[in-house]
Amino acid sequence: MTVNNFLQAQTKELSAFIELLKQQLEVKDEQIATTNRIADQAQQLDLTTHKQSQPSLPQQTESEHPHNKKYGLLW
Q1: How far apart are CA 12 and CA 14, in angstroms?
Q2: What is the four-CA torsion angle of 67, 69, 72, 75, rounded to 10 degrees?
Q3: Sign of the C-alpha dihedral, residues 35, 38, 44, 49?
Q4: What is the pTM of this model?
């Protein structure tokens, strides 16, 4: 085997390895995108759950507020 043949064979093998790595990288990118989508959905669900589980606080109207009474203690 000549040096030229050896280098051609090694180049072919490395090119195939690079293609394999590119395919694996594409799969990993898809997995990361899917994981991010699932995390976003979980966060939205958690936010919705917290909003639904919080008791609604009673709202005081302006006239019910203690500082808005027409007559004070001494009146």
Answers
A1: 6
A2: 170
A3: negative
A4: 0.57
For residue 61, name the pLDDT band (cuts at 50, 70, 90).
low
- Expressed in angstroms, the distance from the first to the final Cα of the chain is 114
CA 48 to CA 45: how far, in whole Å? 5
Secondary element (H or E) of residue 27: helix 3-53
Of 27, 48, 45, nearest to 37 by C-alpha is 45
User: How far is Cα 36 from Cα 51, in angstroms, rounded to an integer?
Assistant: 23
Hey, what are 18's tokens? 């690079």
CA of residue 38 relative to chain centroid, distance? 7
Look at the chain and count its residues.
75
